UniProtKB/TrEMBL annotation:
One of its GO terms (cellular component) is chloroplast. This is AMP-activated protein kinase glycogen-binding domain-containing protein. Residues 45-127 form the AMP-activated protein kinase glycogen-binding domain. SUPFAM superfamilies: E set domains. InterPro entries: AMPK1_CBM, Ig-like_fold, Ig_E-set, Starch-Glucan_Phosphatase. GO terms for biological process: starch catabolic process. It comes from Aegilops tauschii subsp. strangulata. Pfam families: AMPK1_CBM.
C-alpha cells in the first residue's frame, strides 16, 4: 500500500488494521524504503563456523528472514564452514543452525536477550566495507 498505492505509511497501516489484524514491521518498511531510494552499496561479508565434526551448518536471519536458511560450505583444508554474502550497509541479526540445532557463535558479536529471552549473533556492515 505504501510503495505501490502511495499511501502514507501510518494511514496505510491504520486502513490495514481496520480490515484485519496484522502486524507489519513498520520500521523494516521505512529502512527498506531508504535502501531503495539511496541505493546502498553492498559489501562482502564472511561468516565462519569452526567445527569439523558436524554434518551441516546453515544460517537463518541476515537478509533472508528467520523462516529461511542458507547452507554454509565446508572447507576441508581449513576445517571450517563458510558463507560469503554481499549485504547492503546495516545491522543484521542471524543464528547458526548446526545439525538442526539453533545456536550462536561464541566467537562473533551477540545481541542482548530480546523480550523472549533469545540471543542472536549480529553483524554491522558499514559503507566503507568494514564489518
Amino acid at each position: 500500500m505504501f510503495w505501490i498505492l502511495g499511501y502514507n505509511l501510518n494511514e496505510g497501516h491504520q486502513l490495514l488494521q481496520s480490515k484485519r489484524p496484522s502486524f507489519p514491521k513498520l520500521e523494516a518498511i521505512k529502512l527498506a524504503t531508504a535502501d531503495i531510494l539511496t541505493g546502498l552499496s553492498k559489501n562482502c561479508i564472511t561468516l565462519k563456523w569452526k567445527n569439523s565434526s558436524c554434518s551441516s551448518v546453515e544460517i537463518s536471519g541476515l537478509d533472508i528472514g528467520w523462516g529461511q536458511k542458507i547452507p554454509l560450505a565446508y572447507d576441508e583444508e581449513k576445517k571450517a564452514w563458510f558463507l560469503e554474502r554481499e549485504l547492503p550497509e546495516g545491522r543484521y541479526e542471524y543464528k547458526y543452525v548446526v545439525d538442526g540445532n539453533w545456536v550462536c557463535n561464541e566467537h562473533e558479536m551477540k545481541t542482548k536477550p530480546n523480550a523472549d529471552g533469545h540471543v542472536n549473533n549480529y553483524i554491522q556492515v558499514a559503507r566503507d566495507g568494514t564489518s
